[in-house]
Write a structure and sequence with these properties.
mainly alpha; DNA-binding; elongated; 10 helices; homotetramer
Amino acid sequence: MTASSAPRAPTRDERRETILKVAREVFFEQGYTAASMSTIAARLGGSKGTLYNYFKSKEELFEAQVRERCGAAADRITEVTAEGEPEEVLTRLGEQYLEHLYSEETVQMFRILVAEAQRSPELARVFYEVGPARGQQGLTDYLEAAKARGALAMPDCALAAEQFLSLCKGRAHLQFLLNLIPPLKPAEIRLQIAQAVSAFITLYGPKRAR
Amino acid sequence: MTASSAPRAPTRDERRETILKVAREVFFEQGYTAASMSTIAARLGGSKGTLYNYFKSKEELFEAQVRERCGAAADRITEVTAEGEPEEVLTRLGEQYLEHLYSEETVQMFRILVAEAQRSPELARVFYEVGPARGQQGLTDYLEAAKARGALAMPDCALAAEQFLSLCKGRAHLQFLLNLIPPLKPAEIRLQIAQAVSAFITLYGPKRAR
Amino acid sequence: MTASSAPRAPTRDERRETILKVAREVFFEQGYTAASMSTIAARLGGSKGTLYNYFKSKEELFEAQVRERCGAAADRITEVTAEGEPEEVLTRLGEQYLEHLYSEETVQMFRILVAEAQRSPELARVFYEVGPARGQQGLTDYLEAAKARGALAMPDCALAAEQFLSLCKGRAHLQFLLNLIPPLKPAEIRLQIAQAVSAFITLYGPKRAR
Amino acid sequence: MTASSAPRAPTRDERRETILKVAREVFFEQGYTAASMSTIAARLGGSKGTLYNYFKSKEELFEAQVRERCGAAADRITEVTAEGEPEEVLTRLGEQYLEHLYSEETVQMFRILVAEAQRSPELARVFYEVGPARGQQGLTDYLEAAKARGALAMPDCALAAEQFLSLCKGRAHLQFLLNLIPPLKPAEIRLQIAQAVSAFITLYGPKRAR
DNA sequence: AATGAATGAGCTTTCATTCAT
DNA sequence: CATGAATGAAAGCTCATTCAT
């Protein structure tokens, strides 16, 4: 039945990857609680039994998602932090950051992590370390360098990094998290970042007599 | 059973309050979805039917929690916004805000709202309207007044209010939300607010020709 | 509170009548099973306890409806059976019959009686005796008279009466009973009766050589 | 438990049939509303979950009953409509029809459908389409053919079919529906059909110049 | 390794009925 | 007599998980 027409039987690891991908879609569409193993199995085209052959519970299946996916975004953001005038670099970085923050995929995972934070803080820690923490560290490093060459002036670069990211995020993120507004449009992102960069430069820009 | 020991029959309102209190404990311990009406009824010492005599659904029972608790916090914050020098007023307001934001009770409720945001945005909307939206409006009003009398100078008071609250909240809130750190201690709150107020005054303080 | 403004306290019988009227409305709107004592009490403006003071169960409340209401329609139909040419009399009677048969009130009560027929055939018997049986007897009496004076010719007047009513009722009644079509419009009633009368006259009309 | 005594594992279809049979018994004993899925599951010796694996709701389980039983009856009736002299064919068909109409099984199902007509007209529609509608259509087709070859003469075959079925059904059906009389005995059926056929032939038989 | 039928505890919600006041 | 809070059984349905094949 399979041998003749199928080009190749999938290896166990490939099957596992497929399951993860399908499960991710369902988790993101419906949320952790609402997503059912039946739904995942059905969309997979397999049986529930198979699911349980690869992951011994729904929780473990979700945990695998987080461990696998969270690092990717921080990677992208850190890469942005390169040479260039502060205004330009911060704008690029901020826009990159907001695009990530306001994506459906990110918010869905974040919602689930928040929901489960009480029961499984380890999951939340994994997320925080590979995601937000790395992003903030990358920005801090850039600010240190800029300060060293006189492009910016601030007493505490870590604090400044935190402030910048807070200004970028803005109030809208709360509404987005609560599913009260759709993702920001590119123009809205640009405006919000422009306001954050402007404030930041006012605070820490060079040459301004303070 | 009734004549000898019962001190007094509880009024309907008292009973309602008791139910709210018990339900709040269960919701906070287990989360909205995991908390069951059976559990709440059992802990109440009554029947499920009774619960439904007071609240016509689980959702309404939770919504009552949100209205009661978040409304109170926004009230407190709004009250702070009175006369006084901006630095002093903003400090008081900011500290009040952080005390609310970093309390166990608030974060528990917020976690539930975020977790359920996809299924019940109406609940989230109620929360947002009675809580954050009113808080931000109160601050905006204060800033308008301060601007009018020359105590502060900013082109957009709503934006400034948003920025101030973002600076107050800070990065630590993300960690708190994810259950990675305990509530801020009073000293930490004071420091964080001092930094936010300082930045805000730098941005929008009087006399700076902008 | 009551003595000063209320013109008169209702007697127990008046209260009972009011309850019956309100209950009837609810039963007819929602059906026996779907109608709840709570709904009836609420619409009554009283409490459920009061309801149970007058009728000791839901079933008894419904039974009282049937006993009170079923006779009325048959009364009306029987009255129609007066003097006149068969064609005219049968047309009047048939239209009267269909108007009753295709009314919302009648069909609702009938549905409930059918539904409960297995559990309470006594109720059904009450209905049948005071309703359909009397109607058919009235028609039979008329046919006997018409036959006696040579206006109609049939071997078995009871059978003829039954056939006439069956022809009047038609297939549409099944659909109406099943809630598949709305009540017949006056024009439809007239057409259906005209067809029934025409067939009946063909069968049993005078002078036609058979 | 499995190896020694189990004769054979039931196939999915067999299990489905068993469920339908058990459910039918419960529905007929208690009526649609009163019958509970728990009762059906218990009598089946299985769990409620199993029931829901085969039928995704109580309504669907009942609908399957309707489709299976009423469709079969209409099939039988339609088959009767073959060649032969009208009198003979109509007699056979009418007797077949009454046997179905006056069976305990049919009346039970019909009572349920009527009772639930307000809440679920879809169910009633299914019943009407697979049962009465097909039956009437079959008869109409036969009448058309008979008219074409001059064996019968009527202006409107659909109307004639309706009239014939109405005459067959008779008044007794109302009493049977209301559980006031037992099913007709074969002799009663034959008499009732003979009267209906006789009237029908008088109305639409050949040679009568109309 | 894959299947998919079976499970059974659990969920939210409804309702006729009772009873102390 | 009226009230309305309280009850508790029962309903339809879901779902993570197991296990024989």
